[in-house]
Amino acid sequence: MGKWLMKEDSMGKTMKKVKKRTVRRVRTMLQHEYPYPHEHSQHALIAVVAVALFFIFSDNLHIVLHKLDTNIKWWSIYGFLLGFFYFFSSPFLGSTIQPSYSNFSRWYVGWLLIAAVYHLPSFQSMGVDIRMNLSLFLTLFVASVLVLVLFHVAFLGLWYLGFAARLAGKRPEILTILQNSAVLSIACCAFYSHCGNQAPAQPGIFQRQRSMFEDLPKWFAGLQNMHHAKEQMCTEWLGPVGTAADYPVFSKWALYGELVCNDGCVGGPTDIISPVYSLWATFIGLYVANYVVERSTGWALTHPQPETKNGPQKTTVTAPEFLDMVPWYSGTSADLFKTAFDLLVSVTLFLGRFDMRTMQAAMTQANQYKDDGFFYDHLSKRDGLWFDFMADTGDGGNSTYSVARLLAQPFLKMGKTELPRGDLLIIGGDLAYPNPSTYSYERRLFLPFEYAMQPPVWYKPEHIAVTKPELPEGVHSLEEFRAPQCFAIPGNHDWFDGLDTFMRYICHRSWLGGWLLPQQKSYFALRLPCGWWIFGFDQALHGDIDIFQFKYFTEIVKEHVGEDDSVILVTHEPNWLLDWYWDSTTGSNVAHFVEHYLKGGAFLHPTHVFGGFNKFQDGVYEKKFAYPSLKESEQIAWGNILKFRKKNWRFDVIGGVVYFILVFSMFPQCELDQVLRDDTMLGHVWEFGATMGRAFLDMLEHSYVSVTGALVLVILSIQFVPVKVSRSKRIVIGLLHFAAHLTSAIAYMILLEIGIEICVRHDLLGTSGYHSLYSFYHTKEGEHFPDPTGLRARIEYWTMGFYPACIKYLMAAFDVPEVMAVTRANICKSGMDSLPRGFVLAYYASVFLYYWVFSTPVVSLVFGSYLYACINWFHLHFDEAFSSLRIANYKSFNRFHINSDGDLHVYTLAADKVPKEWALDPEWEAEQAEKPDLPSHKRSCPSQWTPVGHIRDRFSKVRVIDEFVIPKRRSPMSNGASEKGTANSTKGHGFDEDDLKERVAKDTEADGSLGNSGLHFQTSSQQSNWTWSDERKEVHLCRLLKRGSFKSSFF
Predict the structure, then answer these.
(1) By residue range, what is the domain housing residue 588?
(2) In the predicted model, what is the mean pLDDT of residues 25-31?
(3) Where are stretches of biased composition, namely Basic and acidic residues (predicted)?
């Protein structure tokens, strides 16, 4: 009874601790996320859009119903504009509104779309003229930016003098100021558009609008009630603050409302302050007040930053900060440009003169195996061993943590099958993408593994291990250490900095999460129980071992590998599979080592592209399973057509610039009469094609920039085709790829020119010069915003003319279509040489702004279609076609078991879906609170985060997709024992052989060929080099597939 009471008391304390942590976590979630009030613009923008839509619906729905424009020409232009602007902005629709490239793209698209749409006639036919709103927006935007910049400069001055709180010293980003200025300007323009700038007491716009509803059917009566609500909002909720007499001090610093009279005006201009001006001033005042209060008193009280003796207190993390999958086709990623530079330097410098492998060998005595840092036999005396293999860990954080979390579990239970955690983890290279750096290793490798299983509490990550292994207190040797260990080989990406980061983090750190790192060199030999070995090769960037590695492993084989021993080779690439695929030979030293010293072959796992692999180097293979199945793999490739740009929207920078260079010399197209004159659709299409042909021929005859760009693109397109196909096929495929891009580039150049020409011929563009918008605003400004006190004149005098000039040229820069049309007309009339260079640059800049929006979705579609055709039709670009998809799913790893009989059981485990949302595991938190000093590998819940959403299973729905046994090599005298050992090899450890075979058979029937161990050995007598041989040493060469990234998951 006493024991039960003690347990209940312990559980009660634990629940209280968990409850406190939960309350603290909820409180943290409810607190504001950002340190500055500028991010409130997201909520402000949502409110502005909602109110604007309400106004537009109430005002203009009846007009749209009565005056629907049926001109197919203009609606087709609308459809073209809206369609391409949607395709351009679709990758950013789900992104958060904060200063970033995606947010910039949204404002960029909004600017160009509005600048184009307001010139089209359909808005005017519905009674909507947005020129006044646009000009007012730009004026308010300039005023808002100037006022806010002056305020922040003054506030920083007060902070510098000591009159403001310490948090005032954190300067706001200029993008946040621009964003907030744009939001409040849009709000004021929405108010002006639907409420006007007149006194509420004066009969005007609302009385005229009420009369419009009288002619509508009865079922439109709801619109009139909505109109009454809008009128109340304009006159009472957001009405003006009063007259000049109410604020005599500010009367000379305000603008006034327009005078609206139905029967004539008496008594002169109104003295009521402008409602738009008062609303703008209110927004500015709220911004200033909010900023000052948060930086002075309220923010310091509600958001304290306590400090401890050891420095600032750590905040509670409520979600893991995992990095996304690497954007391999990004045109804006500095990491990828750094990767290319590091690759060039590594190939020419490090491997040419300062090879780290040579330096490691030089620092080690050649004949000492026990303490040389290359040779480890501390696991060889165990009765059996469980160990795991994974690779390509350095891509997306969700996928890496998902696999690491499965590796860290004390056991994995799948139906009746229960597999214990491996005592050894082998990582097969490419530890961090795209290049080895402190940031990539910390965020893409160490952080997910530390979340999966924490290192000892006494371990300090910044500690450099001089003498390894650094064992816990009370453990004197590796033989006594009974906890997970990890060994890793470097991949080609780990070599991009000459192996510097790999050596610092793997060879001079002691822990990867909860896995001990005994490793001291980049390659190693591991002796396992029952005559099994693991040779970890360092193939650098050339796909081969160096001469010192060759000599070292040769000596190991001669002096340590027994007659009946078996060796597993670990390389960072499936060289034998790639040799079959490319029909070539790589890794001559490895091949020589295998052929003359190990007498063995390859065990590979291809799928889809590699489905035809069945014979290589006298070995015959039969494909049993593939993961994912061949059909699934082909279906995944469709994503290149449908999702390439969504997954790789940064490719816009490269694609848009390339397309513009191709058509740079073709602008402008002045002869478009034939395209617009023909009345039949077939005639339009024919003339459109003819115009494209003439533009192409003109480029060949007169262009320098476009021809140079085309030649470079032709060469790159041909070189981009893999060398697997013949030279003639490479040329044909490359030319077809180039032709698709060139045709698309010219087609959309012609479409853009046709749109401009139509607007010019209908007097919608190019009629009033570069400053048409400002001229319109200048004529309406005094009418709608009276200035009886001469405020504008005073500001112009004080700024020495900067005030009107700034707004004038800002409006000209905003009205890109007008600049394009006017300059185009001058070029077509007088030639390019007649214009000053500045006007020519302005023309090409304005053309590029729109052409970039139109071309970027197309270049991604063409390139994605090319990758799809190559991967599914010609089985080319298997790396490029799947890296573009950035798929985090279909992750797998191998779990091995050497039983007491020496047989090697191989289990391939896979998780089809990788969770994207994580929450703090309450079981981990409770165990952490109850036993804070307990090592993580001894806990029942070692991983900090658990999946949420549709994947709630503790084991992330992992399943065994393949299982097979490699019997231990035995001499002829022990064949009977071999058969007996094989018969008993699947017993124990909770493993049910019949259950697993039945489930694998069901998976095979359902998915066609599901699994990942790919190709099984055939034990015919003709395969002495690959199976059993009485005359040679027996070696099973298991080329372990790389798991955890886009490449390996589909092999």
Answers:
(1) 333-363+375-433+443-608+884-943+960-966
(2) 42
(3) 996-1005
